[in-house]
Amino acid sequence: MKRIYDRVLAAVLVSAGLVAACGKAPEPKLEEIRPVRILKVDTTASGRSIEWAGEVRPRLETRLGFRVGGKMIERLVEVGTTVRAGQPIARLDPADLQLAAAAARTQIVQVEAERRFAEGDLRRYRDLREKNFISQAELDRRASTFESTDARLEAARAQSRQAANQAGYAVLAADSAGVITAIEAEAGQVVAPGQTVARLARAGETEVVVAVPESQHGLVEQAKEFSVTLSALPGRTWKGRLRELSPSADPVTRTYAAKITILSPGTDVELGMSARVSALLGGTGTRIELPVSALYGKGESIQVWLVEAIKDGIGSVRLQPVRTGGLSGDRVLIESGLTPGDMVVVAGAQLLRAGQRVRAAAPG
């Protein structure tokens, strides 16, 4: 019985194998077609523009400090205070300076007395010389004493004027109208001569200071015009003029400081506002620009995905090396590697592989 059972089981398994072999083979897995956004490359005939971020600053900013040292007993302004020319900013303790001025005046009185005595002595010796009672050498000595005393009197008067001036330096005054932008010393602090107490932004021109990368240093001087926009005042634009471009780079950031004067800023433009400066470069030729999202970095090269053999909105992609020429807002200038009419992936580039089939989700 067992032999019969084994034979029946083997026959059943063989029959099942034949049925499976005669069945339909499984279909191969379909290749994924990834949706991407595609842009048709075209040229633009206009000047190229570049943009930098910056800050509104005064053209002239003075660091105010006392011309003499001493203890500061009073500060009369705050940050943001608008001051006029000659307005007091801070005061020093004037006691020592007033004593020095008084001592200098006393010195004048002493030397004046000596001069009067030397003058009278010289007059008497001249009379004696006329009567031939003394020698000429003796008269010359009296004349020399008088001249020396007279010179000492002039020196004492000069020292007195200097001491009086220093007593006046106990009051720090604004040398021009403007706005206080910073305070660097407080009442009770002992300050040295020339130490900064406050910074004064002089009334007048305002400008935007921007940091220019090394690759764009030469382009700044070629700019045909500048325009300034402020984050705090959206929708408004001011014309600018390049006033200064640093000839040397900052040793830390390796950027060049450029100062753009704002033409007719008005009262709305305030110091410290965040600004953006756009520069329109010269040139009348055509150029190719792409969104920054189209770039695909691989190693040290910059590439884009070209879409080829497009049929019914579906094509395959391959990498194309390109050479860029800088940014213009959110777009990048392509100097070589592409020609008008090429189809480039501008969204989804980081998820592709060479030869992959794609579908244009939003044709450019």
Shape: rod-shaped
The percent range for strand residues is 35-45%
How confident is the prediction overall: mean pLDDT? 83
Number of domains: 4
CATH topology of the largest domain: the name is: conserved putative lor/sdh protein from methanococcus maripaludis s2 fold
| Main beta-sheet strand count, sense and barrel state | 6 strands, mixed
Instruction: Find the count of extended strands (DSSP E, 2+ residues).
Output: 24
Strand sequence of the main sheet, in spatial order? 18-19-20-24-1-23
Distance between the termini: 78 Å
Order of helices and strands: HEEEEEEEHHEEEEEHEEEEEEEEEEEE
Low-confidence parts lasting 5 or more residues at pLDDT below 50? Answer: 16-23
Q: Give the C-alpha Rg.
A: 44 Å
Which structural class best describes the helix and strand composition?
Answer: alpha+beta
Number of helices: 4
Give the second-level CATH assignment, the architecture of the largest domain: Beta Barrel
Fraction of residues in helix: 25-40%
CATH C-level of the largest domain: Mainly Beta
